[in-house]
Amino acid sequence: MGSQIMSDFIFLPKVHPEIAAECDVTRLVSNRRGSTAPLLEYKVAVYSQPLDSCLWKLLDVAEFGPSLAIKLSTADYPLEVGQLLVGVPIPLNETPPTERPDLPAPISRRRDDAPVAERAAIRFVYRRARSSYQGDYPYGMSRREHGSLFSMGALLACQSAQSKTFATMVNVVSTPLSGKAPCTFTMRDCNGRAVIASASFVRNSVAILEISGTFQALAKEVYFGSDDVIGIPIFISIRADGEASTISVEHSHPPHEYFWKYAQEQGGKRVKSAWMEKVKIDA
Amino acid sequence: MLDLGSLKLKAKQSLPLSIRSRLSGLKPGNNSPYNGALAQWDQGLSDYFVYRGGDYSTVFVAENTAAIMNARHLPCVHYLYFFGSDGRRIHEITHESDRFNAVIECDLPNDIEVAGFIHQTVEASAAGKELTRQHRGYTGYRRKSATDAPFAMVHGNFGSLYYNRKIASHAVQRSEFVYSSQLLYDPLYRYELMFLNPTPRRLELAIGASSEDGNRIIHEVSIDAFGHAVFESGGDAGQLFWKSKLPICRPIVFEHDDAGKTFDVFHG
């Protein structure tokens, strides 16, 4: 059980009919000591949860065979916008159930004490363009059904009026859910706390706010949040221009990362309470 | 069968998180990317970022962490210090703002194609200085010919650097580590891997390729203290890995399509 504490899920969100999410998963240990063996043996159970259900459905079991890497894509499965694919690294000898209320703990893909998160290259493809980042959903995060999220809108700050951005928030809860109560993902004005836009979503899906180029050109200072759940905010900017269409993807820092390691816990709490408290006062 | 590394990891992970945090705070293990010194630089420690000139425009989204932690505008001066491949300081930009995030256009002399840079802030107010801050920030890149396109964004990744009359850092080199990129390199693309050395010692780096047939070293480079090096590769080289004495060694990767129409940037 110990090695599962630090393990991570792979996730792929379906954010738009024209944007596919895909990822590369390899058998190579991400980071290791020079003396540690380089290869892992495992397979990936691919689950998704319908937006109106609390059950995870097994869609696939991806095996490496002789290859070093496999590719998963939302384009290969019939998903609604808002649904997620969740890849769970599992032992080769395990047969995953086809339907279940929870997600199994992913096995650890670390092999020694080398510091690293167990990530996959998550890529978003829009027409001929693509954009990647190294992503994962930590198992520890997925055990929390309730929580709150705060993220500054820094990734909107420099985008052009000719592009638009999907501000998204991915939530994965690996424990069983008793229902799918609606949650809210909001964009607020930093300088008045007013809600500028909000999206309703459910757990085990991706919340999506579409932000126009016209709004980006105003260079307003905004922040994003949820009072219902925790999650990973990802910002996907696109510009439609035929063959020359472009896409840019990055996730934002969680508040504790504004601080050096010894101050992270205290600092992260301080940032969140400063912004969340302001909202309560102003509400 | 478990090797020694796996057994040590399991033993460590069996301890409660609170005990593990306290132990790591007392003495960094020989896997820690940082030295054990208490960091108290009031301008904040910085990640090490990449500037790209030539055909590219680079912007930096600088976070005003004192303003963010107090949830109100506070004036500050953002300082960006740029360093060449030999680690010497080559340029400096200052930018005054009270906004939570300042967009700083990195306008460097034309002959500078690539540079490493760090970010610090100086505030008149004492608010926010009681906790040591880490400047992460986001760097955006765009072709100069594509002014309507969104910037390709990448967040700060690793650092602990600061500039106090000279560049310094809490990052350290230890024994050998091997980092394997999880990206499936594509033969239809070409790649530029930008490695930054965040330590005050020369960094030896060996880049290799893994395939179903095994591993082979394809390039070796020595990077000056606080310097950088760029490694170019086609997408047909196989799965790239690199050996170094950095516990975490992740380059910034530029990926270009064959037709030269699109590019992407991300952490390796």
Describe the structure.
The complex is a heterodimer of chains A (283) and B (268). Helices cover 10% and strands 39% of the residues of chain A. Chain A contains 3 helices and 19 strands. A 6-stranded antiparallel β-sheet of chain A has the order 8-5-4-7-1-11. Chain A has a 4-stranded antiparallel β-sheet with strand order 6-2-9-10, with no helix packed on it. Chain A has a 4-stranded antiparallel β-sheet with strand order 12-17-14-15, covered by helices on one side. With 268 residues, chain B is mainly beta. Chain B has helices spanning 4-13, 17-26, 65-70; strands at 45-47, 49-52, 56-63, 76-83, 89-97, 101-105, 114-123, 134-135, 138-143, 152-155, 159-163, 167-169, 177-180, 189-196, 203-211, 214-223, 228-234, 239-244, 252-257, 263-267. The longest helix of chain B has 10 residues, at 4-13. The chains are: A mainly beta (283), B mainly beta (268). Chains A and B meet through strand 2, strand 3, strand 10, strand 18 and strand 19 of A and helix 1, strand 3, helix 3, strand 10 and strand 13 of B.
Oligomer: heterodimer
| SSE string of chain B, helices as H and strands as E | HHEEEHEEEEEEEEEEEEEEEEE
How does the overall form of chain A come out from the CA principal axes? globular
Shape of chain B: globular
Question: How is the secondary structure organized here?
Answer:
The complex is a heterodimer of chains A (283) and B (268).
Chain A: E1 8-13, E2 19-26, E3 31-33, E4 43-48, E5 56-62, E6 69-73, E7 84-90, E8 99-100, E9 120-126, E10 129-135, E11 137-138, H1 139-142, E12 149-152, E13 164-170, E14 183-189, E15 195-201, E16 206-211, H2 213-217, E17 222-226, E18 232-239, E19 246-251, H3 264-282
Antiparallel strand pairs in A: 1-7, 1-11, 2-6, 2-9, 4-5, 4-7, 5-8, 9-10, 12-17, 13-16, 13-18, 14-15, 14-17, 18-19
Chain B: H1 4-13, H2 17-26, E1 45-47, E2 49-52, E3 56-63, H3 65-70, E4 76-83, E5 89-97, E6 101-105, E7 114-123, E8 134-135, E9 138-143, E10 152-155, E11 159-163, E12 167-169, E13 177-180, E14 189-196, E15 203-211, E16 214-223, E17 228-234, E18 239-244, E19 252-257, E20 263-267
Parallel strand pairs in B: 1-8
Antiparallel strand pairs in B: 1-11, 2-7, 3-6, 3-9, 4-5, 4-7, 9-10, 11-12, 13-18, 14-17, 14-19, 15-16, 15-18, 19-20
